[in-house]
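Predicting holo structure, zinc ion bound.
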Amino acid sequence: MPVTLPQLSRREFLKRAALAGAALAFAPSSHASWFGKARDRHTFFFLSDMHIAADAAFKHKSGVNVAENLAACVRQIAAWPVKPAAVIVNGDLALKDGLPGDYATFGKRLAPVRALAAVHLNLGNHDERENFWNAFPQDAAKLKSVPQKQAAVFGSAHANWFLLDSLDATNSTPGVLGAEQLDWLARELSARPDKPAIIVGHHNLQTPGSVDGLKRETAALAELFARQPQVKAFIHGHTHDWSITQHVSGVQLINLPPTGYVFKDGRPNGWVRCTLGKIGAEFELRCLDVKHPEHAQVQTLKWRV
Ligand SMILES: [Zn+2]
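Done. Tokens:
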């Protein structure tokens, strides 16, 4: 059950690029600079809601070429002055039904990022578990934390990261974590009480008027936030919008923008930089349209105590 794609060595990266017919939109001379860059171990990059079709020329009805949008985000990430600690891709990799060809095209467009850092992949409601797992067999990490789900936890200097799998049924909007995964999360959080915990899953908490998200489990998560004060942030996608708000418990709610298409005209698409500090984090929106009024806005969050 792959959830993490390890960073590729320069040799492995170039081998794969050659096998892919050098289809990557980068000159070979640019590769050298990626491998030579310093790493900032406190910085993490996020991508969400890519919705990639097997046909890289596919355009969403809004006119957006989703594969080109992902490629443009990847170019921006590759041009960033430092390498991140990790990149987290937060679900809806595939267009609609999680078809094998969708993941093949996604993997090709994501490839340059794999030269920079490990990539953690979460599933969304437009992904299909078996096809997803089959798409990255050579990178498969056998995680058996929760049966038939791909929850995982990894540590960093200033926070522990908890990756959740909220895919219930492919191409059905709401998400479900399930009792086993919620128990796993509570156990893993209890085992790590001293460091800030950041939870990342595809679906949003259910609020009045929001897109159907974790309808059945929002109350359970609110109880968990109350019981586990080390939980400082909940990061999700799914709504195809960008916002940072605060839950009544003080937990920061970070709604990642899509790289693909937006639901509402004028809202931003792109990716997000997060740099952790001891008592909080900076979040920066990086828009595909660099003229968007919210592009490059940095929000400095202080964790609840
Ligand atoms: Zn989506």
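Residues 4-302 form a domain with the Purple Acid Phosphatase; chain A, domain 2 fold (CATH 3.60.21.10).
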